[in-house]
């Protein structure tokens, strides 16, 4: 029973983190049809900005909620700014070009941003554990868990709900859906397609940065950390179905569960469990478990 | 006519002078500097360690060039030649490092390379170093396989740090001294040669010293893992008496932070072979009661010698903190090369042949910044052995802003390193045959 509850809690906490890092990636793919490798760099920038925001908040005596609020706001602002610059300066010139070309451009963007983080913040690890320490521990199934890690599950669910609501229940969401289905017809109907693409990419970048800021209190923040994240985020969105928000939720849950089960029960295969799941899913469903519906063109 | 001859002579003299100066410029330039490639982790999780190594190397290079290092390294530069350092980031994996190494050799035309912390990188670079015939000092990677399996007849590769065998054997001895009734030990290590070898050697050493110990959990994680939640649950769910880890860099820091907040340290005694790095990075957030080592007698374990005291003072003056163990390791690498270089030169200043420097290093004993000398005793004189030490982190002295370390025990080099010509694992399994403790 103890092991089962530990598996489930660890899986939930890891899945929540996976969803946070993957949601921006899948959103951007869904609308712009581009695999944005630079997403890992947005995550890194968010983590660094989060560390500094938390440090500044602590030094002026703010409480835990304000520390986290400052980290989130600063990271979202930084992510959005970089997102706007990246979309306007690089990606907007590449829309309509072959996908491999755009993929390489986002990879180049990733390398540039990664080196910039090194230049700005140096190579040494930074820490901002105060909010996580302040929130204390909770006992579940006889094991201590940081309240912060459990709270991230709720934050992740809220982000999922907010993205789903925006896409399905708001006018702007309907415009985004229209652009996803057919950008030419959408433009003909009066939707500003360029602005929708810019907005989506900016939100995706801001979500990546937010994920970094919320992860920062748990880890040693260091340059190059985006590489690991982008690989696992791709695994999540591929399993769930590229471009599908509900797929990202399902992909995160499956991969989180796979990792937790293997760590607890068969640790020898933990290192490649994520990729084993991905290979298994793609063998059966090449477009992922919940691929977005596609309009049939006549 | 006389005038013409006079002009011609003058022109010829000027031309000869210019040509002479041009011809001599090349060799003079080459003789001016000894170009050394320094390869340390400068980004990513490894930078928590590598940036300290870079800081230590910079300090030593500048002080050597200025002739300000105390005896026995009080002559300027290396054998009177100024050092020209080129720093390279070790992050990016073995394939990238192979390209970087070739760039250092072919484009930068370095005279030698000092660096590499990752065992995987050392394994990849050593054969290329032999092909390139460039003296390469693997200053701190610890896998015994480097000279046991990968580069079995090293000519240009040397390692001025002991292998990790020393860390594992000393950790096992120390743990059993502190917990003689220990029943169970689990492990969490990185999933590459360093982590795998460390756990295998530690288990083998423990099995020799106390055969009835059980090992319920052996976890291996990817380098750069950020979330250890599931691993900590596994280790806390069925806690062992002790938890062994050879984690280093940002991984070590992240694991220590996450494990301590979840109370794992209260259930299992932490044994951290690279734990001094956690103390260096996390300070008072380090888990109180942890048994820790420093890949040698570095950091909090150093002796008092004029050289060791100078290094401590200069490092604090330059970087406003006590020197971390990465800085000691880098200093050791440079001092080893300087000692060998000057022995090879035998009083003749200037650059020496690489082969002569390597020959001089074989079997050499040289002084270090930690105060504990190193002897190039193993693998035909290409592999160092050194005393090592373990201790317990007992809290933070806020007044001095440094760690309180208790129960320090030093193990002689011949007690915890295999004898020359014996494979590390075979030596451990033989019951440490030939060890002099």
- The count of domains of chain B is 2
Shape of chain B: globular
* DSSP strand count of chain A: 2
Major sheet of chain B: order of its strands?
7-6-8-9-10-14-15
Q: Give the fraction of residues assigned to helices of chain A.
A: over 70%
CATH architecture of the largest domain in chain B: 3-Layer(aba) Sandwich
Mean pLDDT of chain A: 91
Spans of chain A of at least 5 consecutive residues whose pLDDT stays below 50 are none
* Portion in helices of chain B: 40-55%
Structural class from helices and strands of chain B? alpha/beta
Average pLDDT of chain B = 89
Question: Can you give me a brief rundown of this structure?
Answer:
The complex is a heterodimer of chains A (298) and B (437). Chain A is mainly α and 298 residues long. Chain A has helices at residues 2-32, 39-59, 64-89, 99-121, 130-135, 147-169, 171-181, 183-188, 193-215, 225-240, 245-265, 270-284; strands spanning 137-140, 143-146.
Report what the structure shows.
The complex is a heterodimer of chains A (298) and B (437). In chain A, helix 2 packs antiparallel against helix 3 (64-89), helix 10 (225-240) runs parallel beside helix 12 (270-284) and helix 11 packs across helix 12. Chain A has a two-stranded antiparallel ribbon. Chain A has 298 residues and is mainly alpha-helical. In chain A, 74% of the residues lie in helices and 3% in strands. Chain B folds into 2 domains: 32-163 and 302-386, Rossmann fold; 165-301 and 388-429, Rossmann fold, CATH 3.40.50.2300. Chain B has 16 helices and 15 strands. Chain B has helices at 2-32, 47-65, 94-106, 119-132, 145-150, 165-178, 193-209, 229-237, 249-261, 264-267, 275-282, 306-319, 325-345, 354-361, 413-416, 424-429, and strands spanning 33-40, 82-89, 112-115, 135-138, 157-158, 185-190, 218-221, 242-245, 269-272, 291-293, 365-366, 374-378, 383-386, 388-397, 402-411. In chain B, strand 9 (269-272), helix 11 (275-282) and strand 10 (291-293) form a beta-alpha-beta unit. Mean pLDDT of chain B is 89; it is low at 1-30. Classes of the chains: A mainly alpha (298), B alpha/beta (437). At the A-B interface, helix 1, strand 2, helix 10 and helix 11 of A face helix 2, strand 7, helix 8 and helix 9 of B.
